[in-house]
Design brief:
Chain B: It comes from Venatoribacter cucullus. The complex is a heterodimer. By secondary structure, chain A is mostly beta strands. In chain A, 0% of the residues lie in helices and 55% in strands. Chain A has no helices and 17 strands. In chain A, a hairpin with a 4-residue loop joins strand 16 and strand 17. The mean pLDDT of chain A is 91. Chain B has an eight-stranded mixed β-sheet with strand order 3-4-2-1-5-6-8-7, with helices on one face. A six-stranded mixed β-sheet of chain B has the order 11-12-10-9-13-14, with helices on both faces. Chain B starts with 6 loop residues before the first strand and ends with a helix. The model of chain B has no long low-confidence stretch (mean pLDDT 94). Classes of the chains: A mainly beta, B alpha/beta. The interface between A and B is medium-sized, with 19 and 26 residues.
Amino acid sequence: MKTAQEFRAGSVMSLQGQPWIVLKAEFNKSGRNASVMKMKLKNLLTGATQEPVFKADDKFDQVILERRQVTYSYFQDPLYVFMDEEYNPVEVEKENLGDVLNFIEDGMTDVCEATFYEGKAISVELPTTIVRTVSYTEPAVRGDTSGKVMKLAKLNNGYELSVAAFVEIGDAIEIDTRTGEFKGRAKN
Amino acid sequence: MQTASLRWHLFCRVIDNFGDIGVCWRLAQQLQQVHGQQISLWVDDLASFAALEPGVNPALPQQQVQGIAVYRWDEDFSLPADEPEVVVETFACELPPRYLHFMQQLTQRRGQQPVWINLEYLSAEDWVRSCHGSPSPVHGMNKTFFFPGFTEGTGGLLFDAGLPALAQELASAEARTAELALYGVHNIADNTRLISLFAYENPALPHLLEQLKQGPQPVCLLIPQGRISAGVEAWLQQPLPVGQPQQRGALTLCTLPFLSQPQYDRLLALCDLNCVRGEESFVRAQMLGKPMLWHIYQQEEDAHLVKLEAFMALYLQAAAPELRESLLPLFRGWNQPGLPMPDLQPLLAAPQGWQQHASEWQQGLLQLGDLAANLVQQVVNRV
């Protein structure tokens, strides 16, 4: 058991029998020797969020999550199937993938990190930077290499994002998976 | 507002003074008398309670006081006979494990838990608004944090409807003379400033008393017996028994017996300036619309100084610049050993500005509604 004030952003607490990751934790002295913790929590199983307040000395179980490296293999509705390093299949439900879905495509080789809770994969994280190929975009604007003018581009899985005006069909581009934003043309 | 009569269980632990039980008792009374709620109150220190409310018998484990069921909260906590719709733990006090289990069973049986409130400490800090009304999922149930406060988005302050009018009632010269006579104080000149003194032990006290003694303004200091009394007697270098005023220069000092809550309200309403402390007397002075000097409860790591500054920022936000420049160092000097205690005399000689500001501040607080009504509304929304 840990007290509420010992939890930090990134740690996972067991609340009402479910794992909640701490996105934000703010400590404040309320009076005398009392303090409160205002938290922002995300349920790792459902994705639901809440912003509860606790007494700083309220006690909770900390959840230690197992993490494993995996690579994407195939989609078997409604599960996305990854393989771990020993080629064991790791199944993740679609709703637990969140924004990761934007960048999943057949043949991708990114080494991802799967998080397990009680033996079940509950989420997958992509590397911070991934490379994807542009399947369609309007022709490049001649002479503009500044990267400040943006246009839409479609990836092989149909996902659209804004890219620099100089990007062309078939270009490999780098994407920041934390923001989902175009970073630049991939270096060969 | 007409609300259903619900059964409330209130829990109070007395830490080291009268603030906790003072607030709880006033809250219990308002919930019962104004809002028609059925109140049971558990208190771990009935002796402190009896000092504030003479109707309490500290020897009884269970009693009815003004229509409120009062229980001694001791080691052998026994389960209540009735089942609550609302449970309030005040000032972060922990509910007994047996009671928590009782609530869990009640929740299972009813399919609905009692409304569970954690009534917190008063603070003017910004973060309070983001925490007021927030859920707290603990012990398989949901608790709600309820924060008193000075701004929209908080629970407001605890006051009763008759309080703001009390100052008017005691404003005439006749009423003042009659009220002072109750304390054995006679022949006070009309231009004498009345100051009540209620504070924790305070190293700035001798500076304040010296100023008042040497000032041009006659001052009568009314001191309910308490933690500051020893400091006053040390400065006087003699005892100051109840009912035997002492004169030092322009200053008359008078010890009063420990006062019940209604008596203390009258004292605050009578005085031109009230030195108050903690939370309860601090709130009463503000809701009376009177100038006050706050001695804040000292906390670890000087957390109280942050709270003092947060309050001063709000309290002085709309004050005239010259008043702000006078009051800020005064409050700081009264609360921070080592800082100079500014001269109070200019404020006493021309009190209108401070009085006007105190009245305007009071009007702003009244707009927030009183804490008991706000709490009932919160509960009604959840039942």
